[in-house]
Structure formats: C-alpha cells, structure tokens
Amino acid sequence: MNHFASIARVPGDPILSLMEAYRADSHPGKLDLGVGVYKDAQGLTAIPKAVKLAEQRLLDSETTKSYIGGHGDPLFGQLLTELVLGADSQALAEQRVGATQTPGGTGALRLAADFIRHHLPTRGIWLSDPTWPIHESIFAEAGLQVGHYPYVGADNRLNVEAMLAALNQIPQGDVVLLHACCHNPTGFDLSHVDWLQVLEVVKARELLPLIDFAYQGFGEGLEQDAWAPRLFAEALPELLITSSCSKNFGLYRERTGALLVCARDTEKLLDIRSQLAFLARNLWSTPPAHGAAVVATILADPELKMLWSDELSNMRLRVASLRDGLVTALEPHGLAQRFAHISQQRGMFSYTGLSPLQVKRLREEFSIYMVGSGRANVAGIDAERFAQLAQAIAHVCVE
Ligand code: LMR
Prior knowledge:
alpha/beta; single chain; binds (2S)-2-hydroxybutanedioic acid; Aspartate Aminotransferase, domain 1; Aspartate Aminotransferase, domain 2; 7-stranded mixed sheet; globular
C-alpha cells in the first residue's frame, strides 16, 4: 500500500518561504523586507547586549536541564505579566491573572485557539481584515469558525467606523482578536479614542477579546504600547492576551512567549489554568526553558532591565527614522505624498500600498523581497541604500 500517495504539495509559508528564497538569491544588491525581524545598521539581527549578559549568567549558574512545569517558569510568568499589565495592575493584585509560558507568541495563539475550541465550542473568532496570515490558519486549523471585521480598506487607510460597525454585528459572546500595537501587517494602530470605542462595543456585545501583543516596545514605548491591554484588563473581568518576546528581546529562535488569562476570580483562574496545562501537555508537553530564563533574568535585575529597555528604544527609534528616510528618498521621484503613510505607521511593518504585481516585480527585477500583500518590514531597510530602494519602487510604480 502506498500510504502517502494522496499527499499533495502545498505552497510554502507566505512569510518564512521568503526567507529561504532570499538566502538562495545570489544578487549582490538583494534586500530582505520580508519576515519581521529587526536588523541593525550592519544588516544584522544582533543579540541584544542585555540578552548576552543574561545568558552568561545563566551559563554560570544553571544547575539543571530538567523539565520546567506545564505553565513554565513562574518568575518569568510573574515578571512578564507585570511588563504587560503593569506592576500595579488591579487584576494582578486580585490574583485573577495568570501566565502560561508558550513556545513564542505563535504557541500562545495556538493554545488560546485550542482553549476556545474545547471550552467555548460555539464561539467564532473574528480577525481584522487584513491580519497576520498565520492568524487565519492557526484558528482554522484548531477548528474555529473564522470571521473578519474591516480594518484597512483598498485605499490603504484605517477605517475605524467600518470596524466598529462590523464589531457591532458580531454574535454575542464571540471572540475578537485585536492587535495591541504595531498592527501586523498594516502598521496602522488605533488611537486611544478608537480603543475606547472598541471597548464599548466589546462590552455591549459581551465579546471576549483576545489581544495579540507581539511588538511591545516597538510602537511608542514599553508602557505606551501596553495602554490598550491595560485598559481592557481594568475594564473587563475576562480577557486573553498573547505576549511574544521574539522581537522586543531579540529571542526569535528561542520561542519565548506566554498566554495571559484574566478571569473573574482566583478560583476560576485556577480552573482555567488546569485546563491550559492539560492542553499544553498535549501540544508541546512543557515549554522550552532558555528564552524565558533569559527574560526573567533581565526583568528581575534593574541594571539589565535598564540596558534592555535602552536597546529596545534604540531599535524603535531606528525603525522610525528608516520610515522617514524612505519617504524622503521617494521625494525626487514625486512619490513622497503617495507613500507619506509609511512615516505615520508604527512598528516593524508598513502596508506600502504596492500591489502584488509590483511586489513581484521588485523581487524579480531588483531582488527586493516583501510579502505579496505589499507588506514591507521597514526594520530590514538598509539606510545606506535608501536611494536604490526608492528608485526600484519608483520603477515598478511608474511603468
Ligand atoms: C512576521 O509577521 O513576519 C513575523 O511575525 C514572523 C512570523 O513568524 O511570521
């Protein structure tokens, strides 16, 4: 019997496959604006100094590689929760919020998906249109009904009115996924006023928010970016938050993140955590330890924490300057106005407004890689090559 006969090939992952194609490209002027990783002025995704120092400490002091528990390292969970919700969070004080360590933010999303599927089986999940493509597949693969609410339209503008109108139509009790900051893929974030309006709809429709927080520190700052998750945690008794340490700690391949759950009280939190431990045991058993130990070491040490937050600020400011630099470089081509939104967007990504065909041409004619939707990882831009990038963009826009 040919067991595997019916297995067909699927296209590669829309983001990770770009990494592979870029690596295989021998063009000397190639530029990778695909996968969301930060690159410094040398084009390197360097390990932050604070991470290196923490790793050195761990190397010297670590005494075991035995399993960590199903919820991961309790110190990591506590300190990450404080980073997300604030050390003075009411939910923390009331002992009704808990963190489950996961393999990256993606693991947290998958755990949340399984949790919803098992324990809220009739609830659909609603994603922004557009959203990170893996959101779509994670929830669909977990067996959830996936719906969409408008976010950025064909005119490449945030449409809060349409978003609110759609959220108002969502069946009562459904789950709504919101990006805390640095919306992926568009880079368009909600204002405080917008968030307050979303909260009102969430309350009115009794929706369960799942806030994806993958870029804390890349938007306006560590505290500022946490504004919406903190608002929701104070205003609502129940909430899910997925937190990633991939970008802000530069721990991409260490797969470090957490699912935070706010429940009505400690007893209910313990019920939920018992179920999460069960689900996680069947997904990955126990989470990888190293990245979380690094994060806990940094967050527990005031000096390391300060060093890390300075390094993170530098990353954020550099990305902001790359945004402005690209728009300035487009000026001589008469395109500064058309691409002015790049300066206004936040985080690593820009929904440039380039069409799939233009993206294809950039790749084929100039070896410039971005996601087919027109999403560019601004953090991948080489400041020495603004002019070259602007010229290539102008070329595919004009012809
Ligand atoms: C991205 O959107 O490029 C990042 O979140 C990396 C990934 O896993 O897709």
